[in-house]
Structures are given as structure tokens and as C-alpha cells.
Write a structure and sequence with these properties.
With about 120 residues, the protein is an all-alpha fold. The chain contains six helices and no strands.
């Protein structure tokens, strides 16, 4: 997704890791993503989600913010999976470990432990 490179280069320093990992490596399921970079991207997505949640409550802006929020959520499915697979690769696990997230009740705990592990 090199067409996003000029946009990523203009981002403030806080958002550059997000731009590099999400926009430039959109379909990249190979390689590694460090623990710090992974959690930095998660933090930025939480901030973006919180902003949309606040905007949805504003009259007249809420409907547009809701639509943009849904589009952003759909847009983030593939890079979210990709960055998680790269993080698993960084911890020494292969991509099928991502299916632990589908286990009801405890899957998110297992994935949290994997995402918090040191790099190998």
C-alpha cells in the first residue's frame, strides 16, 4: 500500500507507527511486529474509537460519525488480523494461534498473554 507513504510521512510522530504498521503493511502477514509497536497501534485505535463514540452523541454530527465509524471498523479488519499475526510471529508462534481468540470467555485472555510476551 505504498500509495499511503506520502500521507504516513506527514503524520505526527505519535501516529507514525500506526501509519507504518496499518497503512503501509495492510496485507502483510509475514514478518514481525514488536510488542511496543503492536500496543501503540492498539492505543491509537482505542483513541480513534473513543473519538467516534463521543461524536456519535453530538446532534447532526452523530449519524455521519456513526457511518464513518462503521467504515473505519470494516477497513481495520484485515490490518488488525495482519498485525496480530505479525505479533504472533514475533513471539515465536505461527499464525494458527490467532484462532485461540475464537474460544468463548477465555480466548481473549489467551491472546492477551500471547500479545504481552517478549520477542524471540
Amino acid at each position: 500500500m505504498e500509495q499511503f507513504r506520502p500521507f504516513v510521512e506527514k503524520l505526527p510522530d505519535f501516529f507514525k507507527p500506526w501509519g507504518e504498521e496499518i497503512l503501509l503493511r495492510y496485507f502483510d502477514f509475514e514478518g514481525r511486529t514488536s510488542r511496543a509497536t503492536y500496543w501503540h497501534c492498539v492505543l491509537i485505535n482505542i483513541i480513534i474509537g473513543a473519538i467516534f463514540s463521543l461524536l456519535i452523541k453530538v446532534p447532526l454530527v452523530g449519524m455521519i460519525a456513526g457511518i464513518v465509524d462503521v467504515v473505519y471498523g470494516i477497513f481495520m479488519i484485515v490490518p488488525g488480523i495482519a498485525i496480530t499475526v505479525r505479533r504472533l510471529n514475533d513471539t515465536g508462534k505461527s499464525w494458527p494461534y490467532i484462532f485461540f481468540a475464537l474460544i468463548p470467555c477465555v480466548g481473549w485472555i489467551i491472546m492477551l498473554v500471547f500479545m504481552l510476551q517478549d520477542s524471540q
